[in-house]
Design brief:
With 282 residues, the chain is α/β, with parallel strands linked by helices. It contains ten helices and eight strands.
C-alpha cells in the first residue's frame, strides 16, 4: 500500500479509506460496522488519507489501522492514547484517531485515558465497547455487568461495579463525549465526523456487540435509542443525565468549549537539551 496523495479535485469515497487487507473479525462482530463508520466519516470530511493517522493498542478493535488506507500504528496493550498524544503534539496538522476497546482502553490503559481527557489534546478517541475480552476468549472486562456469569474466570459474575467511561471522561476534562451503536453505521459515522470536527479531546463510546462470547448483546439493537435531550455544554448537567440513563442513550451527550491543548512553548528563553543530559552524567 502506497501513500500517494489523492488529487483534491476527486471526491473521495469510503472505499478510498479502506486497505486491501481483509478483516478477520468473527462473523457478525460489530467492529465491521465501526470500520465502515470510520471510513464513511473520513469521506464525509474529505480528508486526504496521507493527512490521517489511526493509532491503536491491543485487541479485536485495535486491528482497525491495518484495515484503513491511511497512516497507522499498532501499539502495545493500553498505550494507544500515549502514542496518539505524542503524534498529535509532534504533528498537529494531522487528523489523529485512536481506536481501542473496553479492555485495552479502560483497564491497562485506564490511566492514559484519564490524562488524555485532562490534557484535552485535539484528537478523537473511539472505543468499541462490548463488555468482554473477546480476543482472549471471553473474560470479564472493566465494563462487564457484575452478574454476567458466562465466564469461567468469574463464575457467578464479578460482583464488581462496572467502569463508567462517559462519566470518567467528563470528570477528567474531555470536551466532547458521545455514545453510538455499531448497528447504526450512518449515525455512528455522523458522530465520528462531529467528534473529528470538534476542537479538543473527543471521546466516542461505540456499543459494539461481541456475538461470539456475548450473544445476548444481539438484543442491543432493540435497546438503543437516541438521547431524549439536546447536547449540553454543562459537564455537571451531562453527568447527571448519563448517571441516570439506561446505558443505551446514543448521540452527543456533552460538547464543551474548553480550549484544546497547544504544544506551543510559553514565552521565555529556550532551554538547551544538553542541560538535561548533564543531569545523567556519571
Amino acid at each position: 500500500m502506497t501513500m500517494d496523495a489523492t488529487p483534491v479535485s476527486e471526491a473521495l469515497t469510503p472505499r478510498d479509506y479502506k486497505s486491501d487487507i481483509k478483516p478477520v473479525w468473527c462473523p457478525g462482530c460489530g467492529d465491521y460496522s465501526v470500520l465502515g463508520s470510520i471510513t464513511t466519516a473520513l469521506a464525509e470530511l474529505q480528508l486526504q488519507p496521507e493527512n490521517v493517522a489511526v493509532v491503536s493498542g491491543i485487541g479485536c478493535s485495535s486491528r482497525i489501522p491495518a484495515y484503513a488506507n491511511c497512516y497507522g500504528f499498532h501499539g502495545v496493550h493500553g498505550r494507544s492514547l500515549a502514542l496518539g498524544t505524542g503524534l498529535k503534539v509532534a504533528r498537529p496538522e494531522l487528523t489523529v484517531l485512536v481506536a481501542s476497546g473496553d479492555g485495552d482502553g479502560f483497564s491497562i490503559g485506564g490511566n492514559h485515558f484519564l490524562h488524555a481527557c485532562r490534557r484535552n489534546i485535539d484528537l478523537t478517541y473511539i472505543v468499541m465497547d462490548n463488555r468482554v475480552y473477546g480476543m482472549t476468549k471471553g473474560q470479564p472486562s472493566p465494563t462487564t455487568e457484575p452478574d454476567w456469569a458466562e465466564s469461567a474466570l468469574a463464575p457467578g459474575g464479578t460482583g464488581l461495579r462496572p467502569f463508567h467511561p462517559l462519566v470518567i471522561a467528563l470528570a477528567s476534562g474531555a470536551s466532547f463525549v458521545a455514545r453510538a451503536f455499531s448497528g447504526d453505521l450512518l449515525g455512528t459515522a455522523a458522530l465520528i465526523a462531529e467528534a473529528i470536527r470538534h476542537e479538543g479531546f473527543s471521546f466516542v463510546e461505540i456499543l459494539s456487540p461481541c456475538v461470539t462470547f456475548r450473544p445476548d448483546e444481539r438484543e442491543w439493537r432493540n435497546q438503543v435509542h437516541p438521547a431524549s435531550v439536546e447536547p449540553t455544554d454543562d459537564p455537571a448537567r451531562a453527568v447527571r443525565r448519563i448517571m441516570t440513563d439506561d446505558g443505551f442513550n446514543t448521540g452527543v451527550l456533552f460538547s464543551g468549549e474548553r480550549p484544546a491543548y497547544s504544544a506551543a512553548t510559553p514565552d521565555g528563553p529556550p532551554v538547551d537539551a544538553g542541560y538535561f543530559e548533564k543531569e545523567f552524567e556519571v
